[in-house]
Amino acid sequence: MDPVQEIKAKLSIEDLVAPYVPLKRSGKYLKACCPFHQEKTPSFYVSPERQLAYCFSCHKGGDLFQFIQDIEGLDFRGALELLAEKAHIELPKFSGKSAVSKDLKDRLKLINRDASKFFVQNLWTRGEAEKVVTYLLNRGLTEKILKTFEIGFSPEEGQDGLYRHLLAEKHEKNDILDSTVCLARDSESKDIVDRFRLRLMVPIENAQGETVGFGGRALKKGVEPKYLNSADYVLYNKSQIFYNLAKAKNSIREKDFAVIVEGYFDVMASWQAGVQNTVATCGTALTEEQVKLLKRYTGKFAFAFDADKAGRAALLRAIQTAQPFGLELFVITIPDGKDAA
Question: Which end of the chain is more exposed for a tag (fewer CB within 10 A), N or C?
């Protein structure tokens, strides 16, 4: 069977839409306030009989593929891959591309999930992490925000604490290495250590809210790099991902503009202040891939970069990168010497 037809046979439009908006029965239809624009009177209808979801006000929607393309900001191929995962269908290989099995992707996602839980538990249970929590609270972040963003801690003690934890969780050595949270110091992969040690840990999610990587901030002065990211691998490429897009995309769509900041903590401070349409680049200058990704949700970008010399240079590069895409660009001014957080 064709993968598209197989997906349609296994997934129902009402089950697909339900996690995004609360549906209420209205005769043979289900209705809700539209997830694509703000409204008080429901104009978004789901037809289980025809397997369609459509807003009669903003005219967005269609079959389950079109709905996912619109709600997740994906092209057809991206929607096909996401729905194939939900339907537990293995897509055929495409010539010219090295296929990565769904099983491997799922195993790598589980490793990142378990690593994130390990870091979070360390932050709230290890004695040496108390100073880290105090530092974060003194920066003005609340305990609620730290838990919302699943901030964690990687201890300095030992060099393979995470690796041993992941083995205890029944993950395979080769998968752990593929996830890049640990690395081998020898050619035979016998000497394996954690990538992140004595760092404040920030999980990085893809647009669907799955943890695929980490950013680690050094906690000891003089340690370089100050910010260490997961290495690029199957699930993660820092030039193609925004920090916090999964949490921010609905707000970005509703407000029809995105605030782009430089750092993880700028995002958290903005979120805490009620500005939830905020994303950050993942330790890299704004790329064309990131612009194309964010453009799926809005055509208006507002940059709130640091006011120092490096921030101004980054702002200029970001504007130059975004200008060719026909966007409305804005700059949020910050007092000299200050950053967004």
Answer: N
Residue 27 CA to residue 177 CA, distance in Å, equals: 53
133 torsion bin: left (phi>0), alpha (psi -120 to 50), beta (else): alpha
Per-residue pLDDT tens over the stretch 205-257? 999 899 999 999 999 999 999 999 999 999 999 999 999 999 999 899 889 99
| Other beta carbons within 10 Å of 93 | 9
DSSP letter (8 states) at residue 117:
H
The CATH number of 240-331 is which of 3.40.50.300, 3.40.1360.10, 3.40.50.140, 3.40.50.2000? 3.40.1360.10
Peptide bond into 225 cis (omega under 30): yes
pLDDT tens digits, one per residue of 129-169: 999 999 999 999 999 999 999 999 999 878 999 999 999 99
Residue 290 burial (CB < 10 Å; 0-12/13-18/19+)?
buried
Q: Does the domain made of 102-236 have the CATH classification 3.40.190.10?
A: no
Per CATH, the number for 3-87 is 3.90.580.10
Task: Judge whether 243 and 282 are in contact, CB under 8 Å.
Answer: yes
Q: Categorize the per-residue pLDDT at 106 as very low, low, confident or very high, splitting at 50, 70 and 90.
A: very high
Tell me the C-alpha distance between 268 and 289, whole Å.
Answer: 23
Q: How far apart are alpha carbons 244 and 249 in whole angstroms?
A: 8
282 confidence band (pLDDT: 50, 70, 90): confident
> Where in the chain are the domains?
3-87, 102-236, 240-331
Residues 35 and 44 sit within 8 Å (Cβ to Cβ):
yes
Token output for 24: 């209420």
Residue 210 DSSP one-character state = -
Count the neighbouring beta carbons within 10 Å of the beta carbon of residue 53. Answer: 31
